Structure formats: structure tokens, C-alpha cells
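2 proteins. here.
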Amino acid sequence: MRRGKGVIGIALLVSAVLAGTSACGGKGSASADSQNGKGGSSGGASASAHPSPSHTHPSGPPMLLETIAPLDKATVGVAMPVSVVFTNPVVKSARSNIEKHLKISASVPTTGAWHWMGDKRVDWRPKDYWKSGTKVRIDADLKDVSNGSGRYGTHGYTHSFTIGDDVRADASVTGHTMKVTRNGATVRTLSINAGSAQYPTWNGTMAVIDKQEKVHMTSCSVGISCNKGDANYYDLTLPWDIHLTQSGTYVHFSTGDTNPGSGSALGSHGCVHLSLADAKWFYGQVKQGDPVTVTGSPRAKASADNGYASFNLSWPQWLDGSASGAKTTAAL
């Protein structure tokens, strides 16, 4: 099963940077300025603002942030980017200055760069995966900084997080297996089924967006079928769901495919299916930012902004979307 629509799709991001709507009508991401009285609803994705002395600000409406990910004080995986979403578009000519005011510090020197996903979202990823155990901090010193269209930042934000164990999952569509490793050692190899020929799974590396014990999924919400008599129709609440893309890719258990890899090779609607026991086990192993890499699917790689798929771009491709280029993190 899957939940989403089109390349970008519709999805609920419980603790992610990308706002969306679930198939059954869920909540969107909370505003980074919500806890500061700047609008939006309160929620876990809010940024921590640090106060500054009052003085005369440039004229114009405020430049606000929608979200910063990961959460402050979170422990995340080695493929997790820092992702900042602005409420209003940032003009191209202002992006270099914006990047200069988004400072990344780390306990282990790490080379990385910002990359703009359109005019509202900018992500920072390391050239290679983070080193496990690294402490990271983003200082978004945006006070009086312009978005290029008359809006100015009113305060700064700080998020600190830790890179946890190096947990990775490598799924082979043709082999019907998914190998799970922790800090370089194989933990288990699980039997899977991936997408059918009609609804293939995205190839490439997708960092975990979030996970939920139960997700309501419907075929109608993703444009597959709204006809209850159709073979592709579904309306199910399924357990142990690991969220991989905004367009609705999950690793999870499906009641329509209870024994994946058994030889039946049942195809999903784009998700990766595990048995009930394996899905529960995998749910307990992974966290936001852990990379899940799919190979052997006839589908292209997920786009970098379809969740946290930044490592689907080569390093030169990533730098092409940066206004200020590669830099090494400041000392933390």
C-alpha cells in the first residue's frame, strides 16, 4: 500500500519539515514561529527562538520559518539533512545571504552544503553520511535578514541534535530481501515484496521521515481507485509504518501480502511489505534520518525533495543548488 499523490503527493509528516495532508485528513506541520506568537499552530517541529535586544527593525512584514528539521534535541540517522522551510518565497538573489546566516556547527568537522528545493525550502546535507555520535547545531541568525521581497527576519533560531547509531536498510526488489545493518554489522536480512510492475517502488536512498504505529491508507486518496469493486481499491489501517517519501512510500505490514518473499512475489502499490513480525521488529530498529536504499526497481530514484532523499543527488548535483557552495562545519 502507499499514501500520497503524484510525484510530490499528499502525506502526513508527523515530525518532518514538509507540510501535507493525510489520506484520512491529518494535521500539517507546525509553524516554527508558532511558539513565538508569529502565527501557525503549536507543534513538535517548532524552532527554538533566541531573544535579542530590541532595536529598530527594517520596515516590512516579518520573514517567518514554517519548520526546521530535525527537532531540537533529537537523535537522528546518518542520512538526515538539516531542512529549513520558509513561510514565504525567498528571492534567488537573497539566498546566498540567507545561507550565510544559517550556521552549521558539529563536534566532528563535516563538509556539506545547502541546496534550495524551490524558493521556500533549503536543506543542508553532508557530502557523505554523518559520522555516528556527531553532535550538531544549527544557528539560524535571521534577525533583520531579508528574503529579497521586503520581508525581514525578526529573531534567530537554534536547534541541536545528535547523530545516533549508523542504521541502514538495503532493499533488493528483485531479490525480495532487505538487509539491515547497525554500525557496519549485519543485524538481520528480511524477506520483502516491493511495488508491482504497474506501481513500482522508487529506487534510491530515502532517509526515514517518521514512523507511526498505525496509518490509514486509501487508494482513492492517491488517485489509484475510488471504486470499491476495483482490484486495486483499498481502505485499510495498517501497522508498523516507516515513512520514506512525501508521495506515500512506506515500509510496513500489509494484510494483503502477509508472507512477503515466499515465492508469490505479490506486488504492492509502491511500498515495501514485511511480514507482521518483521515489520514490528524493523519499526523498533529505525529512526528519523536512517537511510533505506532500494535497488532493482524499474522506477527512477525519488527526487531529493520527496521527503529526505537528498543522497539521490550526486555531490556535484547537490552543489548546483547551493548559493554559497561547500563548507566545513564550525567547531562545536
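next one coming up
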Amino acid sequence: MRSPALRHVITHLITPLLMCIGMGLAYMGAFVTPEPHHLPVAVVGSGPQAKVFAQTVKDKAGDRLDVRTVATRSEAVGLLDSRDITGAYVPSAKTPELVVASAASDMDATAVEKVFTPIAAGQGVALKVTDVAAPVDDDPTGQGLFFLLIALSIGSYASVAALGAAGAGLPIRLRALLALGVSAVVSGIGALLAGPVFHLAHHDLASLWGMAWLYSAGILFVGVGLHTFLKRWTTLAMMVLFVMLNFTSSGGLFRPDLQNGFFGTLHAFWNGAGFVEGARSLLYFHSDGLSRNVWTLTAWLLLGLVVTAIAAAYERARGRAETPVAAAAAVRTAEEQKPGLKAEEEAEEEVEETVGV
């Protein structure tokens, strides 16, 4: 290719085209065909009749449902609070009841209702649905936390471009301190959105801010460290890690039992799932399971600190390898100043690409 300008444009088109492929595969693979996949439900009752009924439901559903029996309704509610099941069916000749906790997942509650409504209708009675953990009225679908996750993610990974590219001339120690400050600002914005602005969190807003800070800081430190090695390809790497794989496995729209095994596996340890499930635990389920989600976010922050420490060691080693003669020659002629200008232009392009996405 003879034209350097054309080659330069085509090279920069690689990133958005790869993003197009990746986003299509990730989002369509995760969200287009949600189907129950070992959806855990319970039938309330301890006698042989309840066990036979549960086995009948299981046989008809196949792999779509995992059916267990529990002795009492209160035991079923406890399993809903710990999110070990998505719904509990209480058989009755006159008023059968389905108990759900839609704050855990509105989609799961809907899927369970679709399973048991025809069963009640077949008995000639209406199904009573009781929601023991409904989202707040300001967030009726319970998906506000997912959109909060998106806001925190964009603020975090877009800031990586500014810190890594525009701040490339700064010592990595200073870039790390800036990442610390930016994470506090991003999480503060998230807390304002979740509290005073959209009223997603009616209590424990300070704790929600703490989780948002852990989440944001983890992304920023991973990005600052990666930028030392990936340069302008950091944008693509951050999109893969914290958008394509992150949003799709977070459980914000569909929990793992409505997705295929790949995204369900990621849900167990990815940072977006840690934030969304931790926020649900905090706001709706009496902090049940919160510590595990906080540890997930902490592990990602520790990973980011390790990556940044490795990058710092690499930059120090590279700095010692540069000779004073080479440094003096780099500023002696105009021709040798052009790579510096080119680097500055690429830094600006990287920031524009990231923010634009």
C-alpha cells in the first residue's frame, strides 16, 4: 500500500471493526435467545404427593428446571432470600401460590411464572403470585443497577485512555495516583445517580459507593498497567474485558440460569457480576452473600495493582536501558522529533476512539 495516509486510516479502522465483531458475538450470544437452563425452583410440601408432583414437573421440563422439595413456605422464602432458588410453588386445590423474589431477577421471576401458570390453569384455578423481594418503585424492573454498572464502566475504561495515552510522559506512580482519584470521582458520580438522582438505593448508599469504588479502581488499575504494553490496543482490550465479557455475564438483564454455560461460568467471578449481585444483596436481600461479592471486586482490584506494579518495573527497566547519548540525539534534529509528534497524535486518537465508543 503506497499511501501512508491511507495505510494509517485502515490501521485505525481495525479496532472498531473488531469491536463490531466482538460486540455482536457477545451481546447476541448472551441476550438474543434466553432460555431456562437448570433454573432452580422448589415445590413446597413434605409428603409423597409433593414429591411426585415435583418429579412430574422435572420430567416435563427436562434440563430447563432443577426441582427440589422443601417442607415449609418459610423455608422456601429463605432460599429465595439467599437466591438459591428463583421461585417456589405452594400446591393447593383452591389457591395455589407461586412465591418469587423479582429483585433478584425480573426475567427469572417471569420465566418461573410461565412454568407454573399453565399447571394451575390445568387444575382449573388461578395462580396467586407473591413477590417477597420486589424492586423499589423507582426501579420497577430491577434493571437500574445494570445501567448503573454501564455508567461506572464507561467512566472507568474511558479514563484509562486519558491516563495511559495523554499521561504517557508522567511517571507511572503519578498515573496510579491519578487512577485512584478518578475512581473516587467515578464512584461518587455513581452514588449520586443511584441515590439522589434516580433513587435506586433507598438505604446503604455509602456501602454502595464503596463497592462502586472497588469496581472502578479495579478497571482503572488494570487499564493503566496494560497500557504500558498494549499502547493504542488497550482500548480494544478494555472493551473485551469490561464490556463484551463483563456486561453480558453480570446478571443485570439475564442471570446465568437463562444463559448458556459460558456466560454462566463468567458470572461466578467477573467483576461486573460482583458489583450487580453485591448491590442486590445490599439493597434487597439483607446483605446475604455480600461478602463474597465484595471479595470478587477486591480480587479484581488486587489484579489491577499487580498489573500496574509489573508495568512500573518494566518502565523502570526500560528507562535504565536508554543511554544519555540516544536521548540527546532524539532532541537534536527535527526529523527525530517526528516520532514524538506521531505518538502525541496517536494518544489523542486513542482518547477519541475510547470516548466515542
